[in-house]
Amino acid sequence: MMRLLGFLLITALFVLPVRAAEMLSIEVDHDDGIYTMTSEVWFDASVEQVYEIFSSWDYSTKFSSAIVESRDLPPDAQGRPQFYVRNRGCVLFFCTSFERRGYVESELNVVIYAYVDPEVSDFSLSNESWRFESRDGGAVVIYDLAMSPKFWIPPAIGPYLIKRKLRNNGGRAINRIELLAQDVAIE
């Protein structure tokens, strides 16, 4: 009997719920050719660890299946870090590959801004920001996106499908981001 109670106690310790990344909110809109998204996600990792993942474009392919190539680029003439990202996505039967290239501005462990250069990108607008804050023993990331693609999107159903893709892809990526962040050693 004691052996059974001991086994149950040990088993209970191992099956206690572990808190995982949580999508707190997400809003996606479309108006006059511009898609916007705002999300808030809690991660079971420190702000420093999560910031490290988002501050290096090299990590992007590890957490997003839509990103097939990404990398940090040398600073531009103003000294701003640059980035390159190539995505591949399909909406119904319409598949395309598209590129974004631009520059980054940031404040360590507080905020990252990424601005696309429309002259060398498939977007006339694609501005993103990630704001980081400590909350409930982890890190919250508030993400904002405004984008306007240069490529054709079917007008009748395109906005709905793009919104759905943004919601679904973000939801799948957050657990991968958390795992990567938890492996980051901060000194």
Could you explain the architecture of this structure?
The protein is α+β, with helices and mostly antiparallel strands. The chain has a single domain (24-182), classed as 2-Layer Sandwich (Alpha-D-Glucose-1,6-Bisphosphate, Chain A, domain 4). The protein has an eight-stranded antiparallel β-sheet with strand order 1-2-8-7-6-5-4-3. The longest helix is centred in the last third of the chain and has 25 residues, at 158-182. It has four helices and eight strands, in the order αββααββββββα. The protein has helices at 2-15, 47-55, 60-63, 158-182; strands spanning 22-31, 34-43, 67-73, 82-91, 94-107, 111-116, 123-135, 138-149. It is globular, with a radius of gyration of 19 Å. β3 (67-73) and β4 (82-91) form a beta hairpin. Helices cover 28% and strands 44% of the residues.
